[in-house]
Amino acid sequence: MTASVTVYALSNRSVDAELLGQLAPDADISDDASSFIVTWADVAVRVSSMAADAVPDHLQGLMGFLVSQTGGDPNAIAPVLSTVQGVQQVFGMVVEPDFDADQRAMSLVISLTATLESAFTFANGMFYDPFGQIWLGEQGAPPLADLGELRVIKVPEPVVATPAQAARTERVLERLKAYGVPGWPGHIRWVGDESTVTLRSPAEVARRVVAMHSVVTFARGRPRDEVIADIERFGIGGDVSPTEAALLHASPVDEAARQEMIWSLEALVPLMWALGHIDELAWPESMIDVEALHDLIFASLPDRAAVDAASLRPVAEILDAVELTVRQHNGLRGSHTSGDLVPMNFNWNAPTEMVLASRSLAAPVLAQRHQALNWLIRFGDAGWDDVDTPS
């Protein structure tokens, strides 16, 4: 007696002995001419891939079957057909002699479907979602898998850096080395390269600077009516974020919100650098000179014409700054979690004093830079208030 599961995968990722070994680390992995065999003492799973040229005809027949299963209901048919049309690969998994009581074989099935971003699976005459819950089939029937009893492993797809990404990483690591930074996170997966990243437009960046700077000046004591008049003069009312607008129009002004807005001045530094108004994005060893930054913004973006004429640095330079900032920020976060001390000035080659990461002068600077640069490269395509800065 054997059990079988057919896996319909959305991913083109190849399944090989290395991947199966990661998904079933306590099993032996072997292969023959057409399959990989994952073997424990009392159960084995044979994993076979359908030939690529056979997949289209198989899916065509499957769509006809699934349409009949939905009873012709248009609302049910559309998502089913959309899911099937996204399938890239089909795998057969045969369990011999049957699923084991220790759930190792089922754990492998669900781990593989999770890793391959499976669209669905077929077993026992029914269709299941990637985690073994019924997708189409007999109502009230038990799921294929009880997730509470399984050890599910999802192996992330290996990241292969493009030549541009590899060269960038080398440049960034050299910069970190110059300040004696410890060996912090390796490849930063989500920093794309010049061919995949679309920056905010120069005028949009300049409007963001003026809008935010205007509200910061209000937080620092500039009269509200002057700030509102400036925003109207620049025509940037739509560029003021909801959080900034709430502060600008609050009565009375919340003191904590006012102070937080003043801290956000550090976010303007990478944006002004990206616009070419600051020559170098300095190492985060100290806070900015607030008055000098105010004077620079007023002088560099005095009117709407200057905003409309803005230009940005080359995308490669900006992505270098993104990866450097992400590595710095992630490393600082890691030190905070582990309790490791870092230099107050963030310079291991010439430390001023070793302190907890939260006390380093770099902590607030990097948090603001990370947000600003993620917004600039459209990370998550989020608005200013909603930009995430994940590790």
Strand content: 5-15%
Helical amount: 40-55%
Poorly predicted spans: none
Q: Oligomeric state of the chains? A: single chain
Strand order of the largest sheet: 2-3-4-5-1-6-7-8
Structural class: alpha+beta
Question: Would you tell me the overall average pLDDT?
Answer: 91
Q: Domains counted in the coordinates: how many? A: 2
End-to-end Cα distance: 48 Å
Whole-angstrom Rg: 28 Å
Question: Can you describe this structure?
Answer:
- This protein is 43% helix and 12% strand.
- By secondary structure, it is an alpha+beta fold.
- The chain has two domains: 3-149, no CATH class; 160-391, no CATH class.
- The strands form two sheets. An eight-stranded antiparallel β-sheet has the order 2-3-4-5-1-6-7-8, covered by helices on one side.
- Helix 5 crosses helix 13 and helix 6 (202-219) packs antiparallel against helix 7 (224-234).
- The chain starts with a strand and ends in a 15-residue tail after the last helix.
Structural topology:
Layout lengths: L2 E7 L7 H7 L4 E4 L3 E5 L4 E6 L5 H15 L4 H12 L3 E8 L7 H12 L2 E6 L2 E3 L5 E3 L26 H16 L23 H18 L4 H11 L7 H7 L6 H9 L4 H7 L15 H11 L3 H5 L6 H24 L2 E3 L10 E3 L5 H15 L15
Helix pairs in contact: 2-3, 5-13, 6-7, 6-8, 6-9, 10-14, 13-14
Please describe the structure with a list of short key phrases separated by commas or semicolons.
8-stranded antiparallel sheet, two-stranded antiparallel sheet, 14 helices, 10 strands, 12% strand, elongated
In short:
With 391 residues, this protein is an alpha+beta fold. The protein contains 14 helices and 10 strands.
